[in-house]
Amino acid sequence: MAEPNSQIVYVLTNPAMPGLVKIGMTTQFEVEERMKQLYGTGVPVPFDCAFACQVKDASEVEKALHFAFGTGRINPNREFFRIEPERVIAILKLLKVEDITSQVEQTIGSDVTPADKQSAQNLKDSRRPRMDFHELGIPNGSVLVSKDGQYEATVITEKKVNFNDAVCSLTAATRKILGLADDYAIQPSPHWTFNGKTLKEIYDEFHSATDET
């Protein structure tokens, strides 16, 4: 758990802004208020936290990232970049930072209404199909491992897994490992890995290639 005064760098995406990534910084003390500011009247659906981490000097890390991805910056006065979030995340992980994505995700979701969550999900579903394990080359019997390595789920159909001896969706399994309510809207793919890659990486790679054909 991050300390109240710890510094945070975050990588956000939004279903209403396909292809764009927001790279910003805040503190653990201010993160809730910062996320409320971001989801204002000018944004139709809430942001998703692709990655968040605790760092020693958030200002320096943020400046370095903005410089590294400067050619993709949409507006010099805004923190939005036309890049893949995985590129930013890869650099942050090289710094051996403390991953606090789940904490920030829960902070974002704490003040988002069920209607807001459903609207965001509807927008995501309209852009790309729901995750199909078989389509992604993950056959029945494949073992998915949670990012922290503490849990496993076995694929049993194209959209179902066996988790703790019960058949369920991967979303339901993700809520259980994170201690979230049954109606909590969450994207499960960033929280599970297969053959060393997160399911989100596998999904995005597959559909990016499909979009280009």
Detailed description of the structure:
This protein has 213 residues and is α+β, with helices and mostly antiparallel strands. It has two domains: 7-126, no CATH class; 143-212, no CATH class. Helix content is 36%, strand content 21%. The protein is built from seven helices and eleven strands. It has a six-stranded antiparallel β-sheet. A hairpin with a 2-residue loop joins strand 8 and strand 9 (166-168). The mean pLDDT is 82.
Number of helices: 7
The 3D shape can be described as: globular
Please provide the count of β strands: 11
Largest sheet: 6 strands, antiparallel
Q: Give the N-terminus to C-terminus distance in angstroms.
A: 43 Å
Average of per-residue pLDDT values: 82
What is the ordering of alpha helices and beta strands? EEHEHEHEHHEEEEHEEH
Task: Quickly give the structural class.
Answer: alpha+beta
Strand arrangement, largest sheet?
9-8-7-6-10-11
- Estimated radius of gyration: 17 Å
Number of self-contained structural domains = 2
Which secondary structure elements does this structure contain, and how are they paired or packed?
Blueprint: E1 7-13, E2 21-27, H1 31-38, E3 48-55, H2 58-68, E4 80-81, H3 85-94, E5 98-99, H4 101-110, H5 114-127, E6 143-146, E7 152-155, E8 161-163, E9 166-168, H6 170-178, E10 192-194, E11 197-198, H7 199-212
Antiparallel strand pairs: 1-2, 1-3, 2-4, 3-5, 6-7, 6-10, 7-8, 8-9, 10-11
